[in-house]
Every structure is written in C-alpha cells, then in structure tokens.
C-alpha cells in the first residue's frame, strides 16, 4: 500500500510538472475542457443509465405483453376447436351413433357415417385450423368422406391412443405427421374421450387434427419481421410447434432451457444461444394446460432502441465537447487578452521601446498589474532621462576638453612665428597672420557650438594653412574640393580636419623644404559623408600607428589621431569610423566616414536628405 502511494505521488508529481511547463492559456483551456468534459460525461452516463433502465424495462414488459397476446389469440382459437368438438357431441347424429355404439350394433354404421358428414363439415367450417376429425368407436371410425382414411393405421394401435390412457380427460398432442389419413400432413392433434349423456365412454375417442402450419402462422402474427422466435412446448419439454426460425435453424434443446421454460406458469429469463443472448418470455396455456408458449428475442435487437439512445448520447457529448472547446478557447483568449497585451508590452520594453503604455477600460486584477507597469515605466523613463542628461553633460564636457586640447597645439607655434616675423620687421606677414588667427579663432569657437558646418570647418583649415604657409614659406600647397556644394552645409564636429592637416605639415613634410601638397576631398558615399585628407609627405606605417594607438603608446601625431577617433566615438558611436593608410616615401592618407543621420540622443538631421 505504501509503495502504491509512492507511485501515485510520483506520477502526480510528473504530471503536475508537465502541466506547469505549458503556457497559462493552455492550462486554463485544458482545465475548462477537463471540468466540462467530466460534467458532460457524468451527465451523459447518468442519462444513459436512467434511459437505458427505463427502455430495458419497457422492452421486457412489451416482450412479455406480446407473448401474452399471442398466447391469448392461440387460446381463443384452441377454445374454438374445443367448442366445435362440444357442438359435435351435442348433435343428434352423434347421439344416434352413440346409442348403436353402446349396443354394439354395426348394422347402421353407414347410415350414421352419412349423417355425421354435416356435423363434421360444420366443425371444419367453423374453425379453418381443423384439418380433419376422426371419431374412433368399437363399431368403426367416423370421419368426413372428403378425407381419405388410411385403413392400415388404426387409432387404437397409434401413439395417440397410448397417450390418451395417461390423460383420461383429453390432451393436446405435439406436432406430428398424420398417420390416420393419407397425405402425410403435419398436424397437431386434440384427443378427447367421447361423452354420451354426460358420461365419458372409455372406448370412444374424438381426434381433431389441426394444421401445424396454421398454428405456426397464428403464432407468427405476434412477430415483427424475424426478430422474434416462438416455441410451443409441452410440459415434458418437447417442441409442439415452432415459428420464426430459419429453414436450416434448430431451436434450443438444452435441458436447462426446457427446464427453465416449464418450471412456472409464466416468467422470463435470459438464455445464451448460437452466440447471442436471448430474452425468453413464457406462459402456460389456459385452454391446453400441457402447452407452454415461449417467445425468444435477441437482447441486442430488443435493446436496439437503447443502442440508439447510446449513440445519441455519445453524439450529444461529442457536440458539447466540440462546442466547449470552441467557447473555452474564446473565453480563455478573452480572459487572458489583457495579460497577453501586457506581455507584448514587456517584450517591446526589452527592445528598448520605453514609450509603451498599458491601457484598459476595466479595473480587474490584471488591469491593476498593467497600471503598476505604467507607473514602473514612468519611473524607469525618469531615471533613464536623468542618467541620459548626466551622461550627455559628461560627454559634452569630455568633448570640450578634447577640443581644448587641440587648440593650444598650433597656437604656440603660430604666436612664436608672429613674434619672429615682428622682430625681423615683416609686418605685412604679421598682420596677415594675426588676421588669419583671429578668423580661425572665430570659426573654431563656433558661437559656443560643438558642431559647425563643413564649410566653416574648411574655412578654419584654410586659415590654419594660411598661417602655416607664412611660417613655412613654399613648403606646401593646400587644395580642398567637394563633390557637391550641398555637402558643405552638413554639420560635423569642429576642429576635426585641422589636426590631420597639421600632422601632414609637421610630420609628413619634416624632411623637405618645398614641393609638399595637401589635398582634402569630400564626397557622399552610402548616406555617409566621406572626407579624405592625403599628402605626398614621407608617409607612415599605418599598422604601427594603429598598434600604438591601441596600446596608448602614441607620439604627438598619434595623440591627435586618438583625439579625433575618440570624439567621433562620443558623437556618433560605432556609426562613424576612421581609417589610416600610407607608404614610406609616397605619402599618408586619412579617411573619415561621418553619418548624416542625427547624433545619438539628440534630435534633428545634421546631414542632407
């Protein structure tokens, strides 16, 4: 018992684990279906049992009633036969015949035979089931001359006479071939002693032969098609007449069946026969007390209506289950729709869509959770906005710091050159340099903005090159060109190109005194601003510079490149990029790709459409 409980607990645990592994919608739907299925099935089974019991009782009662009515009809007809015999014995011809029988006078035999014809004909006319009538007497047999008497077979030597000794009051014999008349017709015989003046005469017998097929046809009137079979038995359990059986079929002859059918005057029982279970209803005849009518009907056919009810119940259960599944699915979806909506909102939050909001016109438990979700999202957005503002301020401060690091670098050299030229009395160059420096500062400051147009940035570079050309006369030439003029209106971080040009002058042309060339090209490439700064200086080892930038082992030149890359990262993230290339003795090249889309965390379009 303990082991059984352990197994039960283990099975329940496994099913419970699987149950909670499926979605809540499937669990709710499954719960609905299981509960309604159990209730509908229980109701269907209960209805079937109640209806089945009632139908079975009605079927049994109807079957017994059919047997009773069939036997009542049979008794009525047998009673007519008995009345015909009684009318015969009350006739004057019969009385005259009995007088001669008593006197053993055979001289008037043919006279009496002739006089008996009308009486015998009247008996057969009144009851069509009568095949023939024979009056056996010591002075001879009397019968209808329309019948051919089998002279070789005497009644007193027949089995009928032997059985009549056992039943002095008369009896009904089972079906047999007629040996008293020619034709070998199967008949059922009613044998009774002749009566004269209310006294039975021991040596006079009246034999009334009834057609067996007429009795079978009479019993067959109580059948419905071939679903009912009748057996007319005698008290010895012998078959008198049978009907409803197929031509090759044989009725049951088992002792149990015969005993069960004859132990009471009426009743019923179930009897297995020929692979089927039969309901047997039987009743004893009132006219022929030694006869019992047994009606057999297949239980399956008898309860065919019950099978119809069973099928109907199954169909109803199936229809209700399908309807239940449909409405349960709809109901489950309706109940869980707010929860699914909330789940979808959470998935959108996972995708960084923080502007979502739960809306519901109801005020149930799920709606309360949704409203709590809205409050949580409001707090999260507030916190994120605070962090964003702090990060934005921090980044702007870092950008300004990086920009400020670039400005002193060339300012020292410019002021030093202006000082040298003023000492040497080259006042015109000094004036031009001061004016260029002023314009350069004006453009570099950019009105306090971190972003300036590409046109202003190129002007800034132009002023820087003008100052450097005063410092290094005939050292280099500067050229800038844009693929389209509308590109000049794009916004880029200020002081982005000047450090690249400064690298070309300070490092690319460090080993020459003239012939240098700096070329700046601007184009549009896949919705990005492509800026190329190249020179024909001594070149650089791009891989070594990149390695030094990664390890922070950078020279003054490398420091400017790190500064530019860092500022691009702060402005545009991974969308902007910078690539270095060059060969020794050939020159160096720097490519910048700047997106035209809005900056991170700031609105507006800083490029062209």
UniProtKB/TrEMBL annotation:
<keyword id="KW-0547">Nucleotide-binding</keyword>
<keyword id="KW-1133">Transmembrane helix</keyword>
<keyword id="KW-0812">Transmembrane</keyword>
<dbReference type="GO" id="GO:0000155">
    <property type="term" value="F:phosphorelay sensor kinase activity"/>
</dbReference>
<dbReference type="InterPro" id="IPR003594">
    <property type="entry name" value="HATPase_dom"/>
</dbReference>
<dbReference type="GO" id="GO:0005886">
    <property type="term" value="C:plasma membrane"/>
</dbReference>
<protein>
    <submittedName>
        <fullName>Histidine kinase</fullName>
    </submittedName>
</protein>
<dbReference type="InterPro" id="IPR036890">
    <property type="entry name" value="HATPase_C_sf"/>
</dbReference>
<dbReference type="GO" id="GO:0005524">
    <property type="term" value="F:ATP binding"/>
</dbReference>
<keyword id="KW-0902">Two-component regulatory system</keyword>
<dbReference type="Pfam" id="PF02518">
    <property type="entry name" value="HATPase_c"/>
</dbReference>
<dbReference type="Pfam" id="PF06580">
    <property type="entry name" value="His_kinase"/>
</dbReference>
<keyword id="KW-0472">Membrane</keyword>
<dbReference type="Pfam" id="PF00672">
    <property type="entry name" value="HAMP"/>
</dbReference>
<keyword id="KW-1003">Cell membrane</keyword>
<keyword id="KW-0067">ATP-binding</keyword>
<feature type="transmembrane region" description="Helical">
    <location>
        <begin position="312"/>
        <end position="336"/>
    </location>
</feature>
<feature type="transmembrane region" description="Helical">
    <location>
        <begin position="28"/>
        <end position="48"/>
    </location>
</feature>
<dbReference type="InterPro" id="IPR050640">
    <property type="entry name" value="Bact_2-comp_sensor_kinase"/>
</dbReference>
<dbReference type="InterPro" id="IPR003660">
    <property type="entry name" value="HAMP_dom"/>
</dbReference>
<dbReference type="InterPro" id="IPR010559">
    <property type="entry name" value="Sig_transdc_His_kin_internal"/>
</dbReference>
<keyword id="KW-0808">Transferase</keyword>
<feature type="domain" description="HAMP">
    <location>
        <begin position="333"/>
        <end position="385"/>
    </location>
</feature>
<keyword id="KW-0418">Kinase</keyword>
<keyword id="KW-0597">Phosphoprotein</keyword>
């Amino acid at each position: 018992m303990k082991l059984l409980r352990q197994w039960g607990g283990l099975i329940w645990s496994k099913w419970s684990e699987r149950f909670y592994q499926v979605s809540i919608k499937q669990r709710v739907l499954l719960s609905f279906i299981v509960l309604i299925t159990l209730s509908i099935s229980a109701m269907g089974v209960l209805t079937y049992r109640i209806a089945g019991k009632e139908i079975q009782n009605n079927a049994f009662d109807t079957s017994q009633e059919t047997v009773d009515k069939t036997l009542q009809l049979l008794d009525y007809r047998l009673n007519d036969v008995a009345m015909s015999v009684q009318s015969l014995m009350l006739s004057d011809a019969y009385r005259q015949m009995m007088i001669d029988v008593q006197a053993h006078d055979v001289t008037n035999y043919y006279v009496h035979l002739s006089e008996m014809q009308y009486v015998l004909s009247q008996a057969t006319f009144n009851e069509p089931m009568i095949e023939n009538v024979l009056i056996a007497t010591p002075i001879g047999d009397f019968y209808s001359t329309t019948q051919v008497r089998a002279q070789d077979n005497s009644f007193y030597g027949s089995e009928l006479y032997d059985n009549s000794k056992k039943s002095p009051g008369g009896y009904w014999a089972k079906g047999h071939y007629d040996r008293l008349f020619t034709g070998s017709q199967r008949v059922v015989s009613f044998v009774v002693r002749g009566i004269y003046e209310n006294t039975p005469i021991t040596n006079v017998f009246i034999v009334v032969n009834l057609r067996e097929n007429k009795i079978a046809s009479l019993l067959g009137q109580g059948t419905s098609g071939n679903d009912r079979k009748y057996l007319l038995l005698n008290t010895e359990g012998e078959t008198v007449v049978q009907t409803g059986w197929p031509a090759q079929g044989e009725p049951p002859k088992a002792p149990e069946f015969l005993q069960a059918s004859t132990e009471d005057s009426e009743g019923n029982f179930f009897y297995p026969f020929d692979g089927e279970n039969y309901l047997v209803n039987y009743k004893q005849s009132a006219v022929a007390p030694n006869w019992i009518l047994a009606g057999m009907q297949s239980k399956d056919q008898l309860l065919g209506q019950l099978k119809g009810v069973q099928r109907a119940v199954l169909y109803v259960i199936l229809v209700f289950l399908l309807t239940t599944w449909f409405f349960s699915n709809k109901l489950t979806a309706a109940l869980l729709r707010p929860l699914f909506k909330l789940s979808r909102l959470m998935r959108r939050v996972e995708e960084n869509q923080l502007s979502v909001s739960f809306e519901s016109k109801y005020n149930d438990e799920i709606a309360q959770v949704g409203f709590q979700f809205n409050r949580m999202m409001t707090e999260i957005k507030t916190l994120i906005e605070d962090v964003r503002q702090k990060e934005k301020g921090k980044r702007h401060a870092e950008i300004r710091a990086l920009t400020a690091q670039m400005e002193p670098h060339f300012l020292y050299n410019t002021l030093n050159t202006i000082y040298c030229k003023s000492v040497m009395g080259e006042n015109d160059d000094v004036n031009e340099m001061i004016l260029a420096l002023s314009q350069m500062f004006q453009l570099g400051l950019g009105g306090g903005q971190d972003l300036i147009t590409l046109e202003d940035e190129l002007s800034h570079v132009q002023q820087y090159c003008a100052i450097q050309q005063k410092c290094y006369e005939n050292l280099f030439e500067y050229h800038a060109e844009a693929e389209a003029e509308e590109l000049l209106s794009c916004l880029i971080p200020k002081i982005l190109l000047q450090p690249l040009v400064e690298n070309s002058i300070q490092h690319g042309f460090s080993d020459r005194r003239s012939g240098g060339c700096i070329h700046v090209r601007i184009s549009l490439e896949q919705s990005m601003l492509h800026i190329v700064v190249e020179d024909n200086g001594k070149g650089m080892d791009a891989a070594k510079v990149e390695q030094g930038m990664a390890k922070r082992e950078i020279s003054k030149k490398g420091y400017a490149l790190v500064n530019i890359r860092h500022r691009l990262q702060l402005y545009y993230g991974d969308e902007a990029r910078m690539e270095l290339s060059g060969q020794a003795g050939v020159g160096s090249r720097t490519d910048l790709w700047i997106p035209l889309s809005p900056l991170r965390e700031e609105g507006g379009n800083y490029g062209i459409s």
